[in-house]
């Protein structure tokens, strides 16, 4: 370090850089500067010798007191300095002109020179800047010799025309200019030359500060020597100046501290943003990735900034960037002993300097520390250390060690401790925020259960891959997961998902992006693979996933279906749309469920099928409002009387694009999307309206309406039915609700109470497609039903298959034994009707009687194909009009 001991001298720092960049001095520049230092020393000695020869020495016993006082004064003002940073130049403002002026007025040249040399070199040694003794000694000689020569020349020229203090003042001011000139020359020697304008500005400021200090010294000298009690006034003036100095110095220190806090926090925050962006591109789990994305070099400016702010010889920054325990060590300043950087994690765990509770700064000195601490300081090669841990929300993030202040006259003070504590708090908070930001970004793109990418992360990665090359997207659906969750609990289902994801990751490798899209659906992105290769991988992946899963004491065998799609489809549109690829892969998965091998690639025809289903769903509600949905009626006839007892309401959709649609095509789609409630309400209203119309004409005909699973799960459905009865004034016994066993057994705990409430209203309940369910006989007695409908597949096969006839006969007998009415569907010929009559079946329905007809055609059929039966004739109820099929 090169320092100039003059009031407004510029401090040129070659080892303690000013942020943000370390100023490195090349070996060539160091050789030039060393030569320049020797030149300054040699010329300084010559000028001092010339001044000693030109100015005679007069011995006075008072010099024995004046000399030490001057040395003490020079040393004191060197410690009472104000450091100002101006870009890469450090300004050191002191009051050196005051003791120099007193020396010019009271002591010979040799005494003042000796006092300045002793004080200046002692200050350099105390500040550990003794590496440039030759340069500093030469400057000290120049700073004393020139003022004495200038003062002597001024006195010779002006003589008695000016007072003695004027020439001394001119000499003191010249000392400041000499110091400034040496500083500018030193900068040029080091390769940091200043422009002419900057040099002139520097000289002007130096002259102003020197003139101010000289004026203060002259005023004090005159007061002390020519005024009674002048020393009292001088003391008051000195106290006021020192107070002003301390206040100004404190303001500057606070400003520099705030700048340092802002700089450190900003650097850490920026490094955290880079880490979070890098982390979001990875599909590795968060625990192993957070913090590893930041290189230790990014922390060098932070350590350097802390060292400069505290004016320390060394700062050791230990940061736990890896949650698994790895600690990075960064040293700024003087070289650190090698053993201190070997195992940073062990140091954080074991070193007594770093095992500190809380977040307070601890100060240790070699002269008064416990033996264990002293050993740690000796290992570090330090005489004094400030140590503060960096603690996050729930963990130790690292530690900061600050070793030895550059000026060891007073060591680290309270302001240094306070600043380091604040810096550490800001640094720990910024590091915590960086980790939080990284985790938030990671969680935004990753599945919390498996650690794989989520849908958002997979979309981002796939979109980036599609910009570079073609790719294949696989969608894998794990089957039987719902059954496992219901039987063993959702925790075991989650374990199964994690195991499946791990198997996929192990089979495909860490370089292949794998994502969990939703509950049991995964996605895989394959770069540079053809569809044939993707099919092979999909088949092998399905086999890997289908291997048994050990869950507790059970072994669950699961299956999977895989669909894949290439990013270069047959159509050119939307070839790079990630959502389109995922949707087409989903279409392929649905198609794979109906295949034997469980693997299917996407073809454009699949998209047309699902597009049609999608259009049906989106257009259904509008179709209801526009009259495209119609209710048709298929009559039901009692056996053997052939009296018309009612009809079944069946829906038809006259689509403007696809034509007449059967219920088998659109009802399952509508039911899956939750629109079936609107359809049921529509059919119910039309059916009750038709019943009311028949009642007004004296006909008592019932209508059967089909119910879905969603209707049976709706607790408010019976209330809506009751309101509809009241609104249309229809007896409940003329409405029949038909339901399938599968719809009831999907959730019996919810459906059975709804059925009981409907039965309590007086509604007739019928089981449709009886004989095809998996639990017909077991649950028949539990259902609150009034009739069963034999599935038409058995009725159609009675004429050719004796087993079908036996099934029909058994159902009729079973129904009658349970006091249930039996309805046979699918009656298409006279032979089947006669067989059913022979079995005592109650009611027949089928094409033999009539196809489903629209309302107008059904009315026409009633009057064209039937005839009225007189009341009481052939079992007809008295007082009612009965229609019999001709």
Automatic annotation (TrEMBL):
The keyword Transmembrane applies. The keyword ATP-binding does not apply. Signal peptide: none annotated. SMART domains: EAL, GAF, GGDEF. Keywords: Membrane, Transmembrane, Transmembrane helix. Residues 613-866 form the EAL domain. Residues 469-604 form the GGDEF domain. It comes from the Bacteria. GO terms for molecular function: cyclic-guanylate-specific phosphodiesterase activity. CDD domains: EAL, GGDEF. The chain crosses the membrane at residues 32-55, 98-121, 133-151, 163-190, 202-223, 229-248. Pfam families: EAL, GAF, GGDEF. Residues 1-23 are annotated as: Disordered. This is Diguanylate cyclase (GGDEF) domain-containing protein. It comes from Actinopolyspora saharensis.
């Amino acid at each position: 370090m090169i320092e100039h001991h003059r009031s407004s001298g510029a401090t040129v720092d070659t080892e303690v850089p000013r942020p943000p960049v370390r100023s490195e001095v090349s070996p060539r520049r160091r050789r030039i500067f060393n030569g320049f230092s020797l030149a300054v020393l040699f010329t300084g000695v010559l000028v001092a010798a010339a001044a000693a020869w030109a100015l005679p020495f007069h011995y006075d016993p008072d010099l024995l007191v004046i000399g030490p006082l001057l040395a003490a004064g020079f040393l004191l003002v060197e410690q009472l300095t104000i450091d100002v940073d101006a870009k890469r130049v450090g300004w050191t403002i002191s009051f050196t002109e005051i003791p120099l002026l007193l020396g010019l007025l009271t002591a010979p040249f040799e005494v003042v020179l000796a006092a300045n040399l002793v004080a200046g070199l002692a200050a350099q040694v105390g500040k550990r800047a003794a590496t440039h003794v030759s340069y500093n000694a030469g400057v000290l000689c120049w700073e004393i010799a020139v003022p004495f020569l200038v003062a002597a020349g001024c006195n010779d020229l002006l003589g008695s025309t000016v007072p003695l203090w004027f020439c001394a003042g001119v000499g003191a001011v010249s000392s400041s200019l000499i110091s400034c000139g040496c500083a500018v020359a030193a900068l040029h020697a080091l390769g940091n030359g200043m422009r002419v304008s900057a040099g002139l500005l520097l000289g002007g400021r130096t002259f102003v500060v020197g003139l101010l200090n000289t004026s203060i010294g002259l005023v004090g000298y005159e007061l002390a020597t020519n005024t009674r009690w002048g020393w009292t006034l001088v003391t008051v003036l000195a106290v006021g100046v020192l107070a002003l100095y301390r206040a100004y110095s404190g303001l500057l220190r606070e400003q520099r501290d705030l700048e340092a806090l802002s700089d450190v926090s900003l650097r850490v925050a920026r490094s955290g943003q880079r880490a979070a962006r890098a982390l979001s591109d990875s599909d590795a789990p968060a625990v192993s990735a957070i913090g590893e994305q930041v290189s230790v070099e990014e922390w060098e400016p932070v350590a350097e900034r802390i060292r400069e702010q505290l004016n320390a010889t060394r700062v050791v920054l230990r940061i736990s960037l890896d949650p698994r325990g790895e600690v990075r060590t960064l040293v700024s300043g003087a070289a650190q002993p090698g053993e201190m950087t070997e195992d940073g994690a062990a140091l954080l765990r074991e070193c007594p300097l770093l095992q500190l509770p809380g977040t307070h700064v601890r100060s240790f000195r070699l002269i008064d520390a416990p033996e264990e601490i002293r050993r740690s300081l000796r290992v570090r090669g330090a005489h004094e250390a400030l140590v503060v841990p960096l603690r996050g929300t729930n963990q130790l993030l690292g530690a900061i060690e600050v070793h030895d202040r550059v000026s060891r006259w007073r060591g680290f003070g309270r302001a240094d401790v306070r600043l380091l504590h604040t810096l550490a708090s800001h640094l720990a908070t910024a590091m915590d925020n960086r980790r939080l930001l990284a985790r938030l970004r990671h969680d935004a793109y990753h599945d919390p259960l498996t650690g794989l990418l989520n849908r958002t992360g997979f979309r981002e990665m796939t979109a980036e891959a599609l910009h570079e090359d073609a790719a294949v997207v696989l969608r894998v659906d794990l089957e039987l997961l719902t059954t496992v969750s219901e039987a063993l609990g959702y925790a075991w289902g989650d374990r199964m998902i994690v195991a499946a994801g791990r198997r996929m990751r192990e089979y495909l490798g860490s370089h292949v992006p794998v994502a969990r899209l939703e509950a049991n659906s995964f996605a895989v992105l394959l770069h540079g693979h053809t569809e044939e290769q993707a099919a092979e991988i999909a088949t092998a992946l399905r086999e890997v996933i289908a291997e048994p899963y050990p869950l507790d004491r059970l072994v669950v065998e699961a299956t999977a279906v895989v669909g894949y799609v290439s990013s270069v489809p047959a159509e050119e549109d939307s070839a790079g749309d990630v959502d389109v690829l995922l949707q087409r892969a989903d279409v392929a998965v649905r198609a794979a469920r109906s295949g034997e091998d469980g693997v299917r690639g996407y073809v454009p025809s699949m998209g047309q099928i699902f597009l049609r289903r999608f259009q049906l769903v989106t257009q259904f509600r509008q179709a209801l409002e526009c009259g495209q949905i119609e209710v048709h009626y298929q009559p039901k006839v009692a056996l053997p009387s052939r009296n018309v007892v009612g009809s079944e309401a069946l829906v038809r959709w006259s689509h403007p694009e696809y034509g007449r649609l059967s219920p088998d095509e659109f009802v399952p789609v509508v039911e899956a999307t939750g629109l079936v409630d609107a359809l049921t309400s529509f059919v119910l209203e039309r059916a009750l309206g038709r019943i009311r119309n028949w009642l007004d004409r004296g006909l008592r005909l019932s209508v059967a309406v089909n119910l879905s699973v969603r209707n049976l799960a709706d607790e408010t459905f019976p209330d809506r039915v009751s309101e509809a009865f009241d609104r249309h004034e229809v007896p409940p016994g003329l409405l029949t609700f038909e339901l399938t066993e599968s719809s009831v057994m999907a959730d019996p705990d919810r459906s059975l109470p709804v059925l009981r409430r409907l039965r309590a209203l007086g509604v007739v309940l019928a089981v449709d497609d009886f004989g095809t369910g998996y639990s017909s006989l077991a649950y028949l007695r539990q259902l609150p039903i009034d009739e069963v409908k034999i599935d038409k597949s058995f009725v159609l096969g009675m004429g050719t298959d004796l087993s079908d006839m036996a099934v029909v006969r058994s159902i009729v007998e079973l129904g009658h034994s349970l006091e249930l009415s039996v309805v046979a569907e699918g009656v298409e010929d006279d032979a089947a009707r006669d067989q059913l009559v022979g079995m005592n079946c109650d009611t027949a329905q089928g094409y033999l009687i009539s196809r489903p007809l629209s309302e107008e055609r059904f009315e026409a059929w009633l009057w064209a194909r039937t005839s009225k039966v007189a009341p009481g004739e052939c079992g007809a109820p008295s007082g009612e009009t009965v229609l019999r099929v001709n």
